[in-house]
Amino acid sequence: MSSTTPVVITRSDPKRLEIEWDDGHKTSFTAAELRGLCPCAVCVNELSGVRVHDARSVPADLEQRDTRMVGHYALTMTFSDGHHTGIFTFPFLRKHDPQGV
Question: CATH class for domain 6-95?
């Protein structure tokens, strides 16, 4: 089973976020990947669970700013397109690891 406990979270530049998990696995997201995955109610219909934000509309050069912890269970950030309502839980981030789990 994959770990969902981060040991190190690094915002190496405005376009990349890296997480090292306590099982040694490393995950790397671009800001565009995170924006495309955003689980907030603006991006995903709360009742149906259907994504309403088209991830293909996210520019590849998108940046993330003001990345911060939400309690001990998630991250939130503001993107250069102004979007800022997503809360990315650690299990969600590990599940959606672009490199595979």
Answer: alpha beta
